[in-house]
């Protein structure tokens, strides 16, 4: 028997064990009401995780409230919640009980070594401690010139386009936001420039890939969640690649090609960085970002740390780029030969924030009065500064800009759900009790070991019990007066503004200040200089849920957001 056949036999054995394991799962959650299952094989998963799942999530919230039972694959149970107290337990209080799923952590360990996404408990906390200063407000303050430098490049490119063509032009704004976010995380995060941001043709191929990655990923999501964690460690990477090639599966092949490309780019950046560090301080200072990028700061912090807290060299290099894009990591388990984390940082920072910036501009194009109000605020503040760029403090004292960003991130969160899995039998207390199928009032849910819990960021941010009857409307003004008492008293466990957008607890988004700054810098420059209005295709634009929300037109496969723009003067 050759080694290929042995690995094939092992794969079959693992799958059989996996079926048996699932069947012994408990039925304790059967008393919690929830939607019927359309399929034993997939349960409700295809309804919850699909690009157009908005309606199903709204239906769950309206029909079953903030704690629901879903049918998982193969007759298993899954909890779906946005109850504030339940989220507090899952994400903050008992976060060691509600961890990322086993397969996820093991797969990441295989590929990335001990980075943020592949560590738990003490080790994860230790890495966060070292990483925190690189993402602190103090460091963001130092980075602000880099943010403005990149935003001004975008401004020049768009101005140039408008000055050499019709006064109002249709522009595909999503790709410009993606390119800007890529350049920003390149310069501020990695000390590397991807894109001169001069015209449409100068785009780095990486930004195109980022637009295709998530839509492809969501088409594969069921397999990713339910099969991949159990097979990702089987055989060698070479074996797994051979298996993928044999499968008649277009999306998986496309994913493999995209990752191979990203891998090459990441390797190049990685080598440049290492080379500069080996050459010493002067070489680092000559780099883009002038030694202030996240990797450089992390290295400096690590040198200062006590011996106990210090990360090993490999851990440092693995760490900074090991930024979210959780779902891609599963695929990397299958496809990539050895660790390459640069891509994770780039994607985490890029797709989330570019989606948020594009959504903000889209909303402003649909609400011209809000756009004008924002423009006036920026122009007046700029006037007081004699036209100079804003400082970090200036940006945090523009109330309407702040309100527009918060409201957009509330109503249109780029990441709509996160999933955790219980590591032992446990209780989940509820702020709002539910009625069980047997008619009893349930104040806390007994969740057996290995229960999947989906936390709905989307429904938490739109909960009418907390935000009021207008919770589903985009109203920046709500942030200019005191927030509803019910919301404040609910103690939403999010790190940002009673919102779950950046999550809460020890695994919350470490880059949320980075992303806030980026949004404010880019939106303030664009709205001051350009007027945004709906394009003729506006009614066809459909925002898809995906892993990170993205707009598409009609049946097109790749995200795009056409918008009309003209110069303000
Ligand atoms: C609007 C933009 C962004 C949104 C909505 C967002 C959202 C999130 C969410 C929901 C998580 C938790 C995922 C989970 O636990 O399953 C997360 C984690 C993370 N994000 Fe972001 N993110 C954004 C931008 C960024 C940026 C710009 C960076 C880096 C520069 C970043 C770095 C990270 C990291 C490192 C984690 C993992 C933290 C850990 O496991 O300890 N994010 N993000």
TrEMBL record:
One of its GO terms (cellular component) is membrane. SUPFAM superfamilies: Cytochrome P450. Keywords: Heme, Iron, Membrane, Metal-binding, Monooxygenase, Oxidoreductase, Transmembrane, Transmembrane helix. It holds the Pfam family p450. Its cofactor is heme. Pathway: Secondary metabolite biosynthesis; terpenoid biosynthesis. GO terms for molecular function: heme binding; iron ion binding; monooxygenase activity; oxidoreductase activity, acting on paired donors, with incorporation or reduction of molecular oxygen. Heme binds at residue 509. It comes from the Eukaryota. InterPro entries: Cyt_P450, Cyt_P450_E_grp-IV, Cyt_P450_sf, Cytochrome_P450_monoxygenase. It is found in: Membrane. Belongs to the cytochrome P450 family. This is Cytochrome p450. It comes from Lentinula edodes. The lineage of its organism: Eukaryota, Fungi, Dikarya, Basidiomycota, Agaricomycotina.
């Amino acid at each position: 028997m050759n080694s290929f056949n042995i690995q094939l036999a092992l794969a079959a054995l693992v799958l059989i064990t996996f079926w048996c394991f699932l069947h012994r799962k408990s039925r304790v959650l059967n008393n919690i009401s929830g939607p019927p299952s359309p399929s034993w094989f997939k349960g409700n998963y295809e309804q919850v995780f699909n690009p157009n799942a908005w309606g199903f999530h709204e239906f769950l919230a309206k029909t079953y409230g903030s704690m629901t039972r879903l049918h998982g694959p193969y007759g298993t149970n899954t909890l779906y919640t946005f109850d504030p107290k339940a989220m507090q337990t899952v994400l903050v209080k008992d976060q060691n009980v509600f961890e990322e799923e086993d397969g996820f952590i093991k797969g990441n360990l295989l590929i990335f070594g001990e980075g943020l996404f592949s560590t738990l408990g003490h080790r994860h906390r230790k890495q966060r401690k070292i990483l925190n200063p690189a993402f602190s407000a103090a460091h963001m303050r130092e980075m602000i010139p880099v943010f403005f430098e990149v935003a001004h490049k975008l401004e020049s490119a768009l101005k140039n386009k408008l000055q050499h063509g019709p006064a109002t032009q249709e522009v595909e704004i999503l790709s410009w936001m993606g390119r800007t976010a890529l350049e920003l995380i390149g310069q501020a995060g990695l000390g590397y420039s991807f894109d001169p941001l001069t015209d449409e043709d100068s785009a780095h191929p990486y930004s195109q890939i980022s637009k295709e990655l998530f839509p492809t990923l969501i088409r594969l999501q069921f397999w990713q969640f339910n099969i991949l964690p159990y097979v990702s460690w089987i055989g060698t990477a070479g074996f797994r690649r051979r298996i993928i090639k044999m499968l008649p599966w277009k999306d998986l092949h496309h994913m493999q090609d995209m990752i191979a490309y990203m891998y090459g780019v990441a390797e190049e950046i990685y080598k440049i960085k290492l080379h500069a560090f080996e050459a010493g301080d002067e070489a680092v200072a000559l780099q883009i970002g002038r030694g202030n990028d996240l990797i450089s700061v992390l290295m400096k912090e690590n040198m200062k740390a006590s011996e106990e807290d210090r990360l090993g060299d490999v851990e440092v290099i693995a760490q900074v780029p090991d930024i979210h894009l959780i779902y891609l990591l599963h695929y990397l388990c299958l496809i990539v030969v050895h660790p390459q984390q640069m891509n994770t940082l780039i994607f985490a920072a890029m797709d989330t924030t570019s989606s948020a910036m594009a959504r903000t501009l889209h909303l402003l194009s649909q609400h011209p009065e809000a756009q004008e109000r924002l423009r006036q605020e920026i122009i007046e503040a700029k006037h007081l500064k004699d036209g100079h760029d804003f400082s970090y403090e200036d940006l945090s004292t523009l109330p309407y800009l702040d309100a527009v960003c918060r409201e957009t991130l509330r109503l249109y969160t780029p990441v709509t759900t996160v999933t955790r899995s219980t590591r032992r039998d446990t209780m989940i207390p509820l702020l709002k009790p539910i009625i069980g199928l047997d008619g009893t009032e349930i104040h806390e849910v007994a969740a057996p070991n290995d229960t999947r819990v989906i936390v709905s960021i989307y429904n938490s941010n739109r909960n009418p019990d907390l935000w009021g009857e207008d919770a589903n409307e985009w109203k920046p003004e709500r942030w200019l007066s005191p927030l509803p008492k019910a919301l404040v008293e609910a103690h939403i466990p999010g790190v940002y503004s009673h919102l779950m957008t950046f999550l809460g607890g020890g695994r919350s988004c470490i880059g949320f200040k980075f992303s806030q700054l980026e949004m404010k810098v880019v939106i303030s420059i664009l709205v001051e200089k350009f007027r945004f209005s709906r394009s003729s295709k506006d009614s066809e634009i459909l925002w898809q849920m995906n892993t990170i929300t993205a707009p598409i037109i009609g049946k097109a496969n790749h995200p795009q957001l056409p918008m009309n723009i003209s110069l303000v003067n």
